[in-house]
Design brief:
single chain
């Protein structure tokens, strides 16, 4: 079996596995990586960008190198290569757990139990839930679904299509490091700088593909494209901006505004200002859009891999001629 087909079949099996199984409650590989990265941080931490860059290189580079060694070990063995790709895809994507957490909060809001929704919100994002009302919680969930569609599904598949299993694993390692140390707290402002900047770089293609597919799959292509064009650049994150703006336009809602992280209040620009305020029913719509974007990403990546092989074969044939 050709390498491009092994990736397509393995990635499809891995994404189906995530759909059917979700994340395990214990022993998740990403959680294990996080514990290992935390151990490395305890050894290397200094309030210095250089030491943070070393931490990023050791953790993300080590994960990608280990994946490359595994891939090399199964090269030429179709069944083993397929299994490794499927397992890696299942391990690094998190669309089902994302949707499950979002729906749990939406269900609590629908039942009028705002306190339960506040308790569950930290499972999905890092905002301070106690100061949020029902509408603000719903908005936070929709924004998190949009951003994590790119981070937990699309970006990983894009890098898998580009670089195989090392791409899958390396992307998720960088994304996990950014979540751990990439925020601008006093401890991580300098130490986490390298992880945050690297996450911006590797997240760039997945964020644009996520936004483009949200335009195609969201049911309001004109509104999604307009919000992406007009508002994405207003967001402080170069990758969350296009994704959240496109989701806002596709769903016809207004995102952005005041929020709080770890006691720090931020006033973010409004995305899709002509939209209506988010309601709890929009959480289910966002989850469904996220699911459609995930499967369209798989189709796009599969087509790209197969087209790339056909192009290389055509060039090789011309070279022999």
């Amino acid at each position: 079996m050709r390498a491009d087909r092994r990736f397509v079949y393995g990635a499809t099996a891995g994404l189906a596995g995530d759909l059917l199984l979700g994340d395990p409650r214990r022993g998740h590989p990403v959680a294990a990586f996080g514990r290992a990265a935390g151990g490395v941080e305890r050894v290397l931490w200094r309030d210095h960008r250089g030491w943070g860059a070393l931490h990023t290189a050791v953790c993300a580079g080590g994960a990608a190198a280990a994946a490359a060694l595994l891939s090399h070990g199964v090269r030429g063995r179709s069944a083993a290569s397929f299994t490794l790709t499927a397992a890696a895809t299942w391990a690094v994507v998190g669309g089902t757990s994302l949707g499950r957490e979002a729906r749990a909060i939406g269900g609590a809001l629908a039942a009028g139990d705002v306190e339960v929704a506040r308790e569950r919100l930290p499972h999905l994002c890092g905002r301070d839930p106690q100061a949020l009302d029902e509408q603000q919680i719903a908005r936070a969930v929709v924004e998190s679904v949009a951003e994590n569609t790119s981070d937990a599904v699309v970006g990983a598949l894009v890098w898998g299509a580009l670089a195989g299993v090392p791409g899958l694993v390396g992307f998720r390692a960088v994304n996990t490091l950014d979540a751990m140390v990439g925020h601008k707290s006093p401890r991580y402002r300098r130490f986490g700088w390298a992880s945050a900047r690297l996450d911006d770089v590797v997240g760039w293609p997945g964020a644009r593909l996520t936004a483009a597919l949200a335009v195609l799959a969201g049911g309001n292509a004109r509104g999604a494209a307009r919000a992406w064009r007009d508002d994405a650049k207003k967001h402080p994150s170069p990758n969350a901006g296009p994704v959240e703006a496109a989701f806002a336009g596709a769903l016809g809602v207004r995102l952005g505004g005041t929020l709080s992280y770890a006691g720090r209040v931020e006033h973010r620009p409004v995305l899709n200002g002509d939209g209506r305020p988010v309601q709890f029913g929009d959480i289910e719509r966002a989850v469904r859009l996220s699911r459609r974007v995930g499967w369209l990403t798989l189709a796009t990546c599969a087509a790209g891999r197969l087209a790339g092989h056909a192009l290389r074969a055509r060039r090789a044939g011309k070279g022999r001629g």
